[in-house]
Design a protein that fits this description.
The structure is a homodimer of 249-residue chains. The first copy, chain A, is mainly alpha-helical and 249 residues long. Chain A has 2 domains: 63 residues, Orthogonal Bundle (Arc Repressor Mutant, subunit A), CATH 1.10.10; 146 residues, Four Helix Bundle (Hemerythrin (Met), subunit A). Chain A contains 9 helices and 2 strands. In chain A, strands 1-2 form a two-stranded antiparallel sheet. In chain A, strand 1 and strand 2 form a beta hairpin. In chain A, helix 4 packs antiparallel against helix 9 and helix 5 runs antiparallel to helix 8. The longest helix of chain A is centred in the middle third of the chain and has 25 residues. The first copy, chain A, starts with 23 loop residues before the first helix and ends in a 6-residue tail after the last helix. At the A-B interface, helix 3, helix 4 and helix 7 of A face helix 3, helix 4 and helix 7 of B. The first copy, chain A, binds a DNA duplex (30 and 30 nucleotides) through helix 3.
Chain lengths: 249, 249
DNA sequence: ACATGCGATATTTTCGAAAGCAATACGTCT
DNA sequence: AGACGTATTGCTTTCGAAAATATCGCATGT
């Protein structure tokens, strides 16, 4: 089965769990989520276990465990005895996810503004800066964006938005925000990598305004800006989805 | 394996799935959730698979699938290679669940008030009435409350609160509300079945006021009343938890 | 006595195969 | 020819056992 460290020294009392061991079910979970979010599978596509088994080199059990978890995250749907499929996408679903995300993150942002200390502010400034750098780097050499660049951009973007709400004091709000981030990512990524319709949009500026209002502790304004930021994105995706009938489910 | 309907007629083209077939994983999920919510297992208790296998007469696979789903619902926690445990309870967790529930349900209620039609109003009136009847029935013969009565009360209570938000138009908000209902149920039930400290609380009246404000389409007032209703419950549970150090984790 | 390493046991995790359904293709009957 | 029932096929779901890991007890040495 696991053939990893068979002949290796037992390394004393340090257990694999303490070492950050990862079960195969967790591997399956991460890789499947990654592939679904990045549209490696078509929305609605049945996820045949035989296929997944080959693709990931895993067996039924860990795959099924992962699929069950992803089902609870709305990335996978399942019908009684007919297996799993990639959750379909639709404009309605996108807006439901977006508006729910706004509800959650605006509340979390307001609470963060109440609770945040110096470390919180520092993390916001720092993650904003990293994001900004990456954006400029990619603007400079547009046209030839490597997948590493796109991945880095996604990371910085996620880290910035996480930093804003990190001090809300609610594990649930943070987890929900992360989950909704992942859900909406499915809609954002195709637009991001596809042609950017030279939109009259200055995203770095939007981020800066959110940061400024946040650091100035202007709760309501910051929340309004954050909501507008997300709605604007969804509107652009909506028109790009209905414009060219590309990814409309 | 499944020995259910082996020799039975195939009943034409009607498939099991159309009949509402249920996989064993779903059975495991429902029964485990039921038992965790009703504190059949102690919070924090390890859920040994051998035990569950015996208790439910199921095998590893469906049990593990159910546990993975429950983990995503925060009813079960898991450590790398150390199996599953019942999620611990604490006053902090209860308040996080309560306040998140308030955020979700108040928003859903406001949207329902915007969207609700005659059927919506009818369902609210009807479920309120059913709940009220059950409460009075149980008040009449207090002391000797059967577990059926308690179960019926829980059902009516859930149905009423569901009816309020049913027309919010967001699958996500409804599902989150259901999930948080289940989470908070773990805290409510022990207090409910235990001694009721003859509190100066008129719950039917609180419900009626929420209903009245809702049907009169007074959004903000209805949301305020709903939030106060949930907070009051959590406050009573908190004092009962810290008073007698019973269920404090 | 205390820490450390080793062995035995309990438990989780994973696998491969068997069993059970669903969907389809086929044949039979009217 | 069309409808109905029946095998066939492919997939999901479930099982029981094997492998990997954690945990506990014990001995050994300092």
């Amino acid at each position: 089965m696991r053939t990893g460290n068979v002949g290796q020294p037992k390394s004393g009392t340090i257990s694999a769990a303490q070492n950050g061991a990862e079960t195969l079910a967790e591997v399956a979970y991460r890789r499947l989520r990654e592939d679904i979010v990045h549209n490696v599978f078509t929305p609605g596509q049945p996820l045949r276990l035989e296929l997944l088994k080959q693709r990931y080199g895993l067996s039924f059990s860990p795959l099924r465990e992962a699929l069950n978890r992803l089902q609870m995250e709305r990335l996978v749907v399942t019908a009684a005895l007919r297996g799993f499929s990639v959750a379909p996408v639709s404009i309605e679903e996108m807006w439901d996810a977006t508006e729910t995300r706004i509800l959650i993150e605006c509340e979390a942002l307001k609470r963060s503004i109440r609770n945040g200390d110096d470390d919180w502010e520092a993390a916001i400034v720092s993650t904003f800066h990293a994001l900004d750098l990456q954006v400029r780097r990619m603007e400079r050499r547009a046209g030839e964006l490597s997948s590493d660049d796109v991945a880095a951009l996604e990371s910085r973007h996620k880290e910035f938005h996480h930093a804003l709400i990190a001090y809300c004091g609610s594990r649930r709000l943070i987890d929900l925000a992360n989950q909704l981030y992942t859900e909406t990512q499915r809609y954002r990524l195709p637009t991001l990598t596809g042609e950017n319709p030279a939109t009259s949009r200055d995203i770095p500026r939007e981020h800066r305004e959110i940061m400024d209002a946040t650091l100035a502790r202007r709760s309501d304004e910051a929340a309004e800006l954050l909501a507008a930021h997300y709605r604007k994105t969804s509107e652009l995706i909506e028109s790009s989805m209905s414009g060219d009938g590309a990814a409309v489910a």
